[in-house]
Amino acid sequence: MPNAKIYVDQTAWSQKDDIIGLLPQLRDLLCRELSVGPVACQLAVLPVHGPRDQPQVNVELHILPTADRTRELLSSLAVAIRLLMASVVAGHIAVRIAQLDPHTYVALKS
User: Fold this and answer.
1) How far is CA 39 from CA 16, 26, 30, 42, 71, in A?
2) The 3-state secondary structure of the chain, one letter per residue
3) What is the largest CA-CA distance in the chain?
4) How far is residue 86's CA from residue 83's CA, in Å, rounded to a whole number?
5) Cα–Cα dist 103/82, whole Å
6) How far separated are the first and last CA of the chain, in Å rounded?
7) Among the listed residues 39, 33, 50, 40, the one whose alpha carbon sits nearest the alpha carbon of residue 97
8) Predicted confidence (pLDDT) per residue in 75-100, tens digit
9) Cβ atoms 89, 12 nearer than 8 A
10) Which among 21, 9, 5, 25 has a CA at the least distance from the CA of 90?
């Protein structure tokens, strides 16, 4: 259940079409590295207004933990996500990955 939100500052919002164009590649990357199918992924690109000293693009990825999702795997995934975003965005890009508590996580999908 990779849930990725890509927050794009208004100063980089002119590149939104390029960022949106990366979503299929991002989903492929997440599916491959996290061993999930495309249906499990939820991706969104959101415009934000923040202080100028924050990253222009902030990718926040929430996942459920599994034994094979080690810190090393997630760190290399974060680097791969940042490199993918850097292919279309010039500027500071942050990637954060959080593993959710499977005992308290609730999802309702219809």
Assistant:
1) 23, 13, 11, 8, 24
2) CCEEEEEEECCCHHHHHHHHHCHHHHHHHHHHHHCCCHHHCEEEEEEECCCCCCCCEEEEEEECCCCCCCHHHHHHHHHHHHHHHHCCCCCCEEEEEEECCCCCCCCCCC
3) 40
4) 5
5) 30
6) 15
7) 33
8) 999 999 999 999 999 889 999 999 99
9) yes
10) 9
d(CA 45, CA 50): 15
pTM higher than 0.90? yes
- The phi, psi pair for 17, rounded to 5°, reads -65, -40
Distance CA 20, CA 22 (A): 5
Amino acid (one-letter) located at 103: H
- Token representation of residue 39: 């249906």
15 near 54, Cβ under 8 Å?
A: no
Q: Which residues of the chain have pLDDT under 70?
A: none
